[in-house]
Amino acid sequence: MIPAGRVTTSNMATFGLRLRLVRTALELTQRDLAERVGANVVTLSKLEADRTSPRPATIERLARGLKVHADVLLNDRSCAELLAGRLGVSLGPVSEDVEAVAKIVEGLKTLMRKA
Question: Which of 33, 52, 53, 88 has the highest CB neighbour number within 10 Å of its CB?
């Protein structure tokens, strides 16, 4: 079963933020993704704003629509690896990575606010 809902640890991204970061990194609009997964833009907007929690089937549909593994939407490390790859940056070993992932997520949040 795929877990869903908000992540409350302060240095971790929420599902909605990971979804938005991956979608924008892949240069897709909410409308593009909605069409790919058979959802409406309002639903995607609520998911990205963490105003609603996705069901496991929704997570799988979103992952397929984004052409990524569902873990990318559920796990900060997997998301950071995908985004770092898109940016041409490499991440260190997992044991040294908690702070690096948190910094990447914070940096991406800052970039998203500026965009």
Answer: 33
